[in-house]
Here is the input.
Amino acid sequence: MAETSLIQRQGVRQLVKFCIVGFSSMIVDKGLLWVLTIHFLLMTRLPAVPWWTWTTLTFCLAVCNGFIWNRRWTFQAQSAVQAHRQFIKFLATNTVGWLLNSCITKMFLIFFTGKVVHDQNPDPQHLLLASICAIPFVVIWNFSAAKYWTFRAPKEAAESEFVQPI
Here is the structure.
């Protein structure tokens, strides 16, 4: 039996695609976060909006981007009947990912600023850097949940893939 190259393995290809989709979602998330924090924190005279409000909004937009592309391209889910259920699962697992991201971002903010509590919102550069540092931790969770729960093929289809002709 010939060894297959690493990139030819389905799980590796899915991880690479997941990371590409994740990168596009990160651009949506962090790009909007940067624009919103710069605009609202530095350029307006409106009362300060807490940083976690912006991260929640940008997270929601990034999740929608991620669901569409992961469903169509990464995991190639075809069933329109399952789309609603998959979106609920995707949203649930990404909500856990958002909570992990928020907690890890806060830990990095403490590390970068030396402050547990900020009198005002932290510097946007510290916030963006802390948020980016949390990404690798959350990717592991999100990919595992998407592959093994959200977009998992029905049991009958999964079993038929492993049946080898004699």
Summary: The chain has one domain: 15-33+50-152. Confidence is low (pLDDT under 50) at residues 160-166.
